[in-house]
Amino acid sequence: MSSLIELSSSELNQVSGGCIGYNHNCIGSVSLNFGCNYSNYASFYSTKLGAYSGYLAGVYNVFADLAQSASQSVIAADIENIASYVQLGAQIGAQNTTNGLSIYKSVVSAISNSLSNGGTKITFPPSVD
């Protein structure tokens, strides 16, 4: 097992999603530095929401095929597709700060329509409004 290392400030910001930093001056007081602006947060969360939308669509397709008694190979392919859906959703969400919410709404709408029509699989990405 490898030993643990301390993360740098930029690495901590990346894994935590935060951008707050701190600076010590000679007197010993601490000043906060809010290095992120609204667009950075909006882009970050749009990317996350896009990725979650891909995950939601992928998992829904697995359960839709399970309910339809699909073969093991079809279900295995659905499970493998989850990762590519997550990646594609994140890419779509990162393109624009409103794309994450749009694709999420589209996935929820596609799932709702699918359930109304017997629970068939949905396509991903669905059309983004």
Query: Uncertain runs with pLDDT below 50, 5 residues or more?
Result: 20-34
Largest sheet: 2 strands, antiparallel
Give the radius of gyration: 20 Å
Question: What's the tally of helices?
Answer: 4
Shape: flat
- Spatial ordering of strands, largest sheet: 1-2
Strand content: 5-15%
Helix content: 55-70%
SSE-based structural type: mainly alpha
Number of strands: 2
Helices and strands, in N-to-C order?
Answer: HEEHHH
Distance between the termini: 48 Å
Mean pLDDT: 79
How would you portray this structure in words?
The structure is a single chain. The protein is mainly alpha-helical and 129 residues long. Helices cover 62% and strands 8% of the residues. It contains 4 helices and 2 strands. It has helices spanning 9-16, 38-67, 72-95, 99-116, and strands spanning 20-24, 30-34. It has a two-stranded antiparallel sheet. Helix 2 packs antiparallel against helix 3 (72-95) and helix 3 runs antiparallel to helix 4. The longest helix has 30 residues, at 38-67. The chain is flat, with a radius of gyration of 20 Å. The model is unreliable at 20-34 (pLDDT under 50).
